[in-house]
Amino acid sequence: MNFHAIKAIYLFEMSRTFRTLLQSVVSPVLSTALYFVVFGAAIGSRFADVEGVSYGTFIVPGLIMLTVLTQSVSNASFGIYFPRFIGTIQEILSAPISSIEIVVGYVGAAATKSFAIGIIILLTATLFVPLRIDHPVWMLGFLVLTCVSFSLFGFIIGIWAKNFEQLQLVPLLVITPLVFLGGSFYSINMLPPLWQNITLFNPVVYLISGFRWSFFSQGDVAVGLSLAMITLFLAICLGTIMWIFKTGYRIRN
Amino acid sequence: MNTTILKQHTSAADQPPAGNEIICAIDNVSKTYTGGSVALDAVSLDIRKGEILALLGPNGAGKTTLISIICGIVNASGGKVTVGGYDVVDNYRQSRGLIGLVPQEVNLEPFETVNNTVTFSRGLFGKPRNPGTIEQVLRKLSLWDKRDSQIVTLSGGMKRRVLIAKALSHEPRVLFLDEPTAGVDVELRKDMWETVRALQADGVTIILTTHYIEEAEAIADRIGVIDKGRLMLVEDKATLMQRLGTKQIRIELQDPLGRIPDALSKYELEIATSGNALIYTYDPTGGRTGITSLFSDLKSAGLVLCDVQTHESSLEEIFVNLIKGEA
Ligand SMILES: Nc1ncnc2c1ncn2[C@@H]1O[C@H](COP(=O)(O)OP(=O)(O)OP(=O)(O)O)[C@@H](O)[C@H]1O
Ligand SMILES: [Mg+2]
Fold first, then answer.
1. pTM
2. Average pLDDT of A145-156?
3. Half-sphere exposure of B284 (CA within 13 A, CB side)
4. How high is the pLDDT of residue A146?
5. In sequence order, what are the residues at sequence separation of 6 or more whose Cβ sits closer than 8 angstroms to the Cβ of residue A30?
6. Which residues of B are less than 8 Å from A86 in CB distance?
7. Residue B19: band (very low, low, confident or very high) from pLDDT cuts 50, 70, 90
8. How many C-alpha atoms does B69 have within 13 Å on its Cβ side?
9. For chain B, N or C: smaller number of CB within 10 Å?
10. Any keyword Metal-binding (chain A) (predicted)?
11. Average pLDDT over residues B280-290
């Protein structure tokens, strides 16, 4: 393992984050705070409790997931697309490092950033709504797994994308709808039976359900199934990345 | 000029196999890009440890492609390359650890500082953090005052020096400079040549590409000419300069000649392809050129001359002929 190289990539990426602190941290936190004000405090107070939890509190795990997923994908995809775009990827390719080390550096940095944002949003939420966390270790575990696997997914997008438009297409057309329809704002038990079944094809449902379980001890699906699904997703992303580096797909001529 | 920063590596992994004077062996390397353009066609070349090799060739000749294959940026379609005895594919960690690359294109993270950018390169190549080394490299390239400036704020020539600093930050044993002096003013060009010579004095092998014959002439120990993906020639500069230094006299004869008369054998004449001209090659710097005795011997051999031309070949001409011959 070339630890110096992993550290160099990681620190270089983190330095980009600190350079653009406002847009990387402040803006997602601000937009989530707005959700809390609107859905939690303003409208939420008119809603009935969901599964014994007040609506404002109920949406906290989903909102965190919403931001963490989009942030992971966009950070990681941009993180690797930008060096491709400006050509600095050549230096990475010419360095004595393996593909695994490249991935650990870039994905590690992207995941760290979205994890930090997730925690900040969680802390922000406590300012607006009463919150309890039944299983804090599981909660952190789900958060880390989500940050890592969706950063891996973002990394793949960043390698696949041929231009900035494609780079933004996936978060916009895939991630956002999946998260909104994945039960961020409702329990899938609130849906008609047909939709409940269709929803089960949405991988994000398992994530949000598991994450919500770690807060309130109740989820839409069993927590073991949530864990299995996210592990599967992680494995698929890892496999794809191995293939990318083996074939040099879109990175090495 | 500081000589301490590029000392031989001491760790076993960095030490090339002993007694190997060829630092980089390129064996039958070919490259066809997806889309079918043939960039390299069976190139073989041995690069000697400690030399400065200039690769000369027109646009699109395949110089960058060759370097990219050695450095691991491009996969070869065929052939084999070793650096320090290590295969660039199978033992890429060891081979790449020995190499520094200054790319042709100025690819730099625009908003990062000079110091961070150069420090990043050192880490990327597996070297522990060492601000002292970075400082020496930056000072050597007159970038120390700019260490905290963002790359975007630098001039083109400074950016090019940042590229060199990045390549030197991890103390390479083999340095590739892909057109290092393109877009660089005369003064900086001289500075760069000086830096290159100092590196050579520290035992670094240097391969540079250029479009300019004068540049190759000024700095290289050996010159290779690449055109259309083929290596046309590799020769010691001294040998090339010797060719450069020779002159030829072309003596047109009235009647064609089947063979050179024995009386003229000591002049090592050649019969021109047309058959009715003789070519005499001599060294104008050598004092006695033998021209006077040649002419009197020609006369005694009974040959009738109709015209005499002298001709001086230049490196430029050798280069142009090589490239034209392939067209
Ligand atoms: N990524 C690529 N895809 C397809 N063809 C390429 C690619 N890179 C280079 N080529 C082709 O390969 C050939 C050699 O290019 P290369 O860049 O190696 O030349 P060069 O000698 O470095 O030229 P220059 O002096 O202009 O830098 C050219 O015909 C070029 O068009
Ligand atoms: Mg080139």
1. 0.82
2. 95
3. 11
4. 94
5. none
6. 107-110
7. very low
8. 28
9. C
10. no
11. 77
Q: Do B96 and A95 touch (CB under 8 A)?
A: yes
| Position A201 confidence tier, pLDDT thresholds 50, 70, 90 | confident
| Residue A253 CA, closest ligand 1 atom number | 1
Which residue among A84, A90, A252, A253 has the greatest number of ligand 1 atoms within 8 angstroms of its CB, and so is best to mutate? A253
Residues 6 or more apart whose CB falls under 8 angstroms from that of B309 comprise B249, B250, B252
Write phi, then psi, for A37 (nearest 5 degrees).
Answer: -60, -45
Average pLDDT estimate for B303-312: 84
By the CB criterion, residues less than 5 angstroms from ion ligand 2 are B 63-64, 104
The pLDDT of residue A61 is 92
pLDDT in tens, B123-168: 999 999 999 999 999 998 989 999 999 999 999 889 999 999 999 9
Length of chain A: 253
Residue B107: which of A9, A15, A90 has the nearest Cβ? A90
State whether residue B223 is helix, strand or coil.
strand
Nearest one of A101, A86, A96, A108 to A13, comparing CA atoms: A108
Q: Hey, what are A251's tokens?
A: 């990175």
Quick one: which atom of ligand 1 is closest to the CA of B67? 18
Where helices occur in B176-290 by DSSP H, the ranges are 186-201, 213-219, 237-245
